Amino acid sequence: MRDNAQSPAKLTALIVDDEELARDELAFLLKSFPAVEVVGTAGDGLEALQLIVLKKPDIVFMDVQMPGLNGLEVVRELVGAGGEIPHFIFATAYDQYAVQAFEVNAVDYLLKPIEKDRLGVSIERARKLRAAPAQEKNQVESLLAQIKSGLRQPTKVLLNNSNRMFLVDAGDIIYASIQDGFITIVSTHIEGQSNYKTIEELQSNLDAATFWRPHRSYLVNINKIQEVVPWFKSSYQLRMSDKKRTEIPVSRAQTKRLRELFKL
């Protein structure tokens, strides 16, 4: 007679990727691993945060680059909240050389396209680490710093101005705005149109610790905010350091983040 008490408990898993096809492909691969039970999928970082809190999965398969709140920012939010942290397995399209250093860490990575054998290694690693949950938080924080460094955020951004193309330092960007489907970037020395199609796409290619989206139509460099201006009904506007001293609204949804940034 089989002793069910000796059977290891299943690992519960959440799949997070902004591409539906990628979510479906990983879910299909995971069907080959009876020790893993997929308890949910998420198409963006905000949904992922909600499901992690609700489902409390053992593993989160997390795409690194997603519009809006990316995979690294999801981890940062969880670490900052001080709650229980699942075992993260990042999915990335970056080449083997860029992510070699991650292999010795508790938090694992999968190189896209995901291979079944490599997926099995990650699952086994997660199973072993579940026995030592106290180590997770420090390991997540350590890897978060490594991944952010490894992604090599671009230091230059291309602007189109008067039929000329200029490269500006990312740190010199003051803010970006979108109107009628076109993104305008205002930097310390020049203003121009970006080739990026969405604010989300631009944001995902800039340093998440420096660039913040206070409103759906704006992305700001927090180091270029000159003044926080109280507005009506407990709202705020940001006065930027450009020559026009542009005032940018803070949406109600981002008011909490503003208070966290500047200890209001």
Shape: elongated
Strand content: 25-35%
Number of helices: 8
The CATH H-level superfamily of the largest domain is Response regulator
End-to-end CA span: 64 Å
Which strand order spans the largest sheet, edge to edge or round the barrel?
Answer: 2-1-3-4-5
Please tell me the overall pLDDT.
82
The CATH topology of the largest domain corresponds to: Rossmann fold
Q: What is the annotated CATH architecture of the largest domain? A: 3-Layer(aba) Sandwich
Largest sheet properties: 5 strands, parallel
Q: What is the CATH first-level class name of the largest domain?
A: Alpha Beta
* Cα radius of gyration in angstroms: 21 Å
Structure description:
It is a single chain. With 264 residues, the protein is an alpha/beta fold. It folds into two domains: 4-150, 3-Layer(aba) Sandwich (Rossmann fold); 156-262, LytTr DNA-binding domain (OB fold (Dihydrolipoamide Acetyltransferase, E2P), Beta Barrel), CATH 2.40.50.1020. 30% of the residues lie in helices and 30% in strands. The chain is built from eight helices and 15 strands. The chain has helices spanning 20-30, 45-55, 71-81, 96-99, 116-129, 136-150, 199-204, 255-262, and strands at residues 11-16, 36-42, 59-63, 87-92, 108-111, 156-161, 164-169, 173-179, 182-187, 191-193, 211-215, 218-221, 225-230, 236-240, 247-250. The strands form four sheets. It has a five-stranded parallel sheet with strand order 2-1-3-4-5, with helices on both faces. A five-stranded antiparallel sheet has the order 10-9-8-12-11, with helices on one face. Strand 13 (225-230) and strand 14 (236-240) form a beta hairpin. The longest helix is centred in the middle third of the chain and has 15 residues, at 136-150. The protein is elongated and about 65 Å long. The N and C termini lie far apart (64 Å).
